[in-house]
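Can't paste images in this forum, so I'm doing it all in text. The chain is below; anyone willing to post the predicted structure tokens underneath?
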Amino acid sequence: MKKFLTLGGFLFVQLCVFAQPFTRQDTLRGSITPERAWWDLSYYDLAIDVDVEGKSLKGTNTIYFFVIIPQQVMQIDLQEPLAITHVDYKGQKLSYTREGNVYHIRFPYPLVAGDRDKITIQYEGVPVVAVRPPWDGGLTWSKDDNDNPFVATSCQGLGASVWWPCKDHMYDEPDSMLIRITAPPSLTDVSNGRLRHIDYLPDGRKTFHWFVSNPINNYGVNLNIGRYAHWTDTIHGEKGVLDMDFYVLQDNYDKAREHFKDAHRTIKAFEYWFGPYPFYEDGYKLVEVPYLGMEHQSCVTYGNKYQMGYLGRDLSSTGWGLKWDFIIVHESAHEWWANSITYKDIADMWIHESFANYAESLYLDYHFGQQAASDYVIGTRRTIMNNEPIIGTYNVNKEGSGDMYPKGGNMLHTLRTWIGDDEKWRSVLRGLQRDFYHQTVTTEQIENYIATQTGKDLKAFFNQYLRDTRIPVVEYEMKGKKLNYRYAKIVDGFNMPVEVRINSGDKIILKPTAQWQELKMEDQVKSFSVDPDYYVLYKKAD
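Text version of the structure:
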């Protein structure tokens, strides 16, 4: 999957990549090992008893799978200090060995290709505590203002195996899933999908049965336990009536009823740009949690403190970022870009974050107009570091640069500008969601699809913005009635046309390359600028 198209880019990326010390644990976590490749996930039945006082978990996961090729050893991931205590297969206890955060489970004989089978895993222990969620993973054991327990999970990157045993690689998703969470009396668990029923136990505890009827990625699974207030709503969308559920701390109910209207506006905007909400069968939930928020599938979590912007800040410094709640909009965008279309390898995390970042400006475009959208996305350039490539290292669970957010959003905005046909661009975005619906994908699949649909050779374009740290520079010389121009700081083959203004005249299209070109004008050339909607720089040649 790794591809570099220029020698210079290859050398630069290689230096960045191989300077990092990757371990066998990184490989076991981040690659499709032989012990993973022989079986295909079908269904999880996950049951967890949450001990809030002891900050521990005890549970089972029954894993249903199809056998692709005969094999006898299965890799299951569960991170220390949690531990598997028993593995059952057809009433027989299976043996296993542990290698760090990986278990190798041995069947009594090679399983038969084509069969559907299952194992049940019992586990328990005190899971890793998330220190800075959602940027690190684990459990958050918190309290609300009334001293009620307030518990949540978040685990992107680190992986779902930080709190439950699973096949912890993004390439393979179950077709559906049952999540059963046992919570203390007076508290509610909110997880993915639809609530089927609640079991009331003799000791006062409750078991919540949530069913996910769509494929779901590993980090998209979550539990949230708190003293919640709940209300429901609907929205008439492209596939009919979408059920919307909202769970907030009881003290926040009144302000949340007003503030969470951003969720309705968000769904409307994104259905216009991307197509139908991908999980009508499971509904849409927005759930308050004791951290900033996360894109858990059909169960978007929220901790932006009921402020506009990002914790009250405008990431673009234009004012447009304070017209909407950043967490509601950004995390809801991930229902399309992360949960429906999911990267196979976290090295391609830009597929999630670049499109979700870009979706912020499309929200503005839908509700406030194209100029607002343009101002916003251009304003976010101030946060771009350009210190390492957007694409990470494959097969070791290593994401790329944080530039995948604002730089990736600006890359897509630039591409929209280059195409110059908003209906065409919208059809590309909706086509991606239609043709890769509920699939795991690679960067190359996304690149090739966009190139095919637009009819443009985008190889160098994506190479420039995804695999290189340099921003293209349009260098120019003004010599009387002549303008000389070229691209600098580009990968081989980069030749994106740009719209420019010379003097005070109308905008024209130039097609710079690495070689100097000359443009003759009727008047003396006195000024030169590039349309700011293109993420390129321009300067006088030295």
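The CA atoms of residues 274 and 411 lie 18 Å apart. The longest strand covers residues 39-51.
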